[in-house]
Amino acid sequence: VSHIFPFLDPIPTYENFLTNFDSFPATTMAQQQQRPISNRPISFLNRNGLFLLLLALLFLLGVYLPLSEAPLFLFPNRTSPSSTPSPSFVVSDWRDYTLAQAAKFVAKNGTVIVCAVSYPFLPFLNNWLISISRQKHHEKVLVIAEDYALLYKVNEKWPGHAVLIPPALDPKVAHHFGSQGFYNLTSRRPQHLLDILELGYNVMYNDVDMVWLQDPFKYLQGNHDVYFMDDMTAIKPLNHSHGLPPSRNGVTYVCSCMIFLRCTSGAKLLLKKWVEEIRAQPWSNTEAKKPHDQPAFNRALHKTTQIDVYLLPQSAFPSGGLYFKNQKWVNETKGKHVIVHNNYIVGYNNKLKRFQDFGLWLVDDHSHQSPLGKIE
């Protein structure tokens, strides 16, 4: 040891120690006993004891802890249902991160804000998040990732705010409107929302082709089961009725892209009926142009009479067919707009250009306001 650590004395044998001990002069022993503690040299036993203790500590840190379940080395797939992720996590594998864990992590005041999106629409997700951050509600957001690429990207940038509910979908086809891939994505929405309600949370759902201009929660007052927006382009009076709107050919035209549901038996009943309606009308090539989840939502509303519904003001929650196509109405309702939906147009590039034309594409100049930051 002494040739490696020259400051240490060679470790003597037990016999040498006894011989040396017997040969110590009595006066020397007395002097050693009388010498103040602060002036005594560190004995070879103390020095080598410290050395061995240091070796043992290094061994524990280098070998034991990485093999243990110590919190320092926790990953999401090792957490218990009550555990929550922290920004210190190394994003290695989020496959086993559960909806229960994720909802508990993001919920604030018993509410979760949800979107469902696949990787190609990551820029739209970021744009939506910027607008929510401006209203100070982004910490409630849970991104339901429809593929692993988005799951890892969001949790890399913003740990704990994305979860994937298997099976993962093909990101290349999930957003082609009217395709089976699009149907596979949107048809899972009511079950996701129902699962969150069953966990005991209120839930707001948004498509990510929306932008928040004001705080929508001031419009979600009262004890109604479900709140939704009209998808019609016909102009309603500012004080229009907030009940279920009149039907068109026997079916209302309510938008399923922005919904707020309280954790009530009525809301759960509606979502169960919505799931049933989707399953009763599976995707087919002959019906390919229909976004099946929305007609199914409207049918479920008509067939579920035991719920308290609330139609949000059109001036605050306009459809894209009204906001982007009726400038006169926009001017007359200026200052009242809360959430704008970029619908009534198909295609990624078309939606992007329309947002840009109306000053609602925030990513280019304001990415620092998003919890995801700038996406390279």
Automatic annotation (TrEMBL):
GO terms for MF? glycosyltransferase activity
All copies of the Nucleotide-diphospho-sugar transferase domain together span: 137-355
Where does the sequence pass through the membrane?
49-67
Q: How does it sit in the membrane?
A: Single-pass type II membrane protein
Enzyme Commission numbers on file: 2.4.2.-
Among Pfam families, the record links this protein to: Nucleotid_trans
| Compartment(s) | Golgi apparatus membrane
Q: Which family does it belong to?
A: Belongs to the glycosyltransferase 77 family.
In Swiss-Prot or TrEMBL terms, this protein is called Glycosyltransferase
